[in-house]
């Protein structure tokens, strides 16, 4: 496909003729859950990464804006060497090939990796008050839109059932509770996907941070839960609570008026339910709408996060019952149907 892809011809022409950057090879670097793709460019001067964001489907301007804000806060985001906004092309610093997830799955000690990630997150939240003001708010409408993905794509399309009127009332009540809890949190700079696939292991100024273009001004606990209740890797509750407590202490040491320990943990847990319900919908949508089934194996872990938290808070007891009745036993069957369908294709 790489030889015949029309966008590849555009990229090669841009590199060779406009940037005058002779290159030896152009290989796929990665793709993500959007239409964006990334290609590693090998040149005599070293390697670069080209972001390919096809106009009409993607817009590189949010990436450029948020990247500049994060760089101003000292975060290690890819330096932008060249850009062609009209054609959706960026020539970026190459942050390497080792994501946190790869290193963690290979058995690396998570403590130094998370220490670096938590320190950078604190820098962004503490120093980024003014920068956060340049971002759109993570408001009620956006929180509600995200939560609506769960019944639409996870329940109806993936699990194959229509919530009854009573069940829809349970969902609506839980969603309103979660939205109100999110809006009550201190509002800070939120990456929105600060997790192990978007943090790159680097020898200096670790971690490198990618996939930040959707940043908003929103709940303090959001990026923390993205990192510590990661949809791609999980840790024992005691370890997570230790990291959360340590992060709160770090904020207090920097003169941040953080909530009490119990409230901080509650905020962390509840915004995690909002995020994970959204992710259940997104991962299902990636298959049923976009044909990307690689995220389906992560659905059980994501659902388990929701179940665990619902069991801890009485306000979510009805949601917990709904999930136990309707989702827990059906999810393995739904994933098996997809696997069987793919095998026949």
CATH superfamily of the largest domain: Aminoglycoside phosphotransferase (APH), C-terminal lobe
Q: In order across it, which strands form the biggest sheet?
A: 1-2-3-5-4
Q: What is the typical, i.e. mean, pLDDT? A: 95
Q: What would the CATH topology of the largest domain be?
A: Aminoglycoside 3'-phosphotransferase, Chain: A, domain 2
**Mind telling me which CATH architecture of the largest domain this is?**
Alpha-Beta Complex
Q: What is the number of strand segments?
A: 9
The main β sheet shows up as:
5 strands, antiparallel
* The number of domains: 2
Tell me the β content: 5-15%
CATH class of the largest domain: Alpha Beta
Helix content: 40-55%
> What structural class is derived from the secondary structure elements?
alpha+beta
Tally of individual helices: 14
**Global geometry:** globular
What sequence of helices (H) and strands (E) makes up the elements?
HEEEHEEHHHHHHEEEEHHHHHH
Terminal-residue CA separation = 19 Å
Low-pLDDT ranges:
none
Rg is 21 Å
Q: What would your notes on this structure say?
A:
- The protein is built from 14 helices and 9 strands.
- The chain is α+β, with helices and mostly antiparallel strands and 345 residues long.
- The protein has 2 domains: 70 residues, Phosphorylase Kinase, domain 1; 245 residues, Aminoglycoside phosphotransferase (APH), C-terminal lobe (Aminoglycoside 3'-phosphotransferase, Chain: A, domain 2, Alpha-Beta Complex), CATH 3.90.1200.
- The strands form 3 sheets. A 5-stranded antiparallel β-sheet has the order 1-2-3-5-4, with helices on one face.
- A hairpin with a 4-residue loop joins β4 and β5.
- The chain is globular.
- The mean pLDDT is 95.
């Amino acid at each position: 496909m790489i030889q015949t892809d029309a966008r590849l011809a555009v990229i090669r022409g841009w590199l060779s003729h406009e940037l005058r950057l002779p290159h030896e090879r152009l290989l796929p670097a990665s793709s993500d859950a959007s239409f964006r793709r990334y290609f590693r460019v090998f040149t005599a001067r070293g390697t670069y990464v080209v972001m390919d964001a096809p106009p009409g489907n993607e817009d590189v301007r949010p990436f450029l804006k948020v990247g500049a804000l994060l760089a101003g806060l000292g975060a290690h985001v890819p330096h932008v060497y060249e850009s062609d906004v009209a054609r959706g092309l960026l020539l970026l610093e190459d942050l390497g090939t080792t994501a946190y997830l790869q290193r963690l799955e290979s058995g690396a000690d998570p403590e130094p990796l998370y220490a670096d990630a938590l320190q950078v997150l604190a820098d962004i939240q503490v120093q980024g008050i003014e920068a956060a003001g340049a971002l759109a708010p993570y408001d009620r409408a956006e929180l509600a839109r995200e939560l609506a993905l769960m019944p639409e794509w996870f329940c109806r399309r993936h699990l194959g059932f229509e919530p009854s009127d009573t069940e829809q009332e349970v969902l609506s009540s839980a969603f309103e509770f979660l939205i109100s809890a999110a809006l009550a949190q201190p509002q800070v700079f939120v990456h929105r996907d600060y997790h192990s696939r978007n943090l790159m292991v680097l020898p200096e100024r670790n971690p490198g941070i990618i996939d930040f273009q959707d940043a908003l001004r929103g709940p303090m606990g959001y990026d923390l839960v993205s990192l510590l209740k990661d949809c791609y890797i999980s840790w024992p509750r005691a370890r997570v609570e230790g990291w959360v407590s340590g992060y709160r202490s770090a904020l207090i040491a920097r003169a941040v008026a953080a909530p009490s320990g119990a409230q901080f943990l509650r905020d962390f847990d509840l915004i995690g339910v909002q995020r994970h319900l959204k992710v259940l919908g997104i991962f299902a949508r990636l298959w049923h709408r976009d044909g990307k089934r690689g995220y389906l194996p992560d659905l059980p872990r994501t659902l388990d996060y929701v179940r665990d938290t619902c069991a801890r808070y009485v306000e979510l007891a009805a949601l917990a019952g709904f999930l136990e009745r309707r989702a827990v036993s059906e999810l393995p069957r739904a994933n098996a149907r997809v696997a069987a369908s793919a095998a026949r294709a």
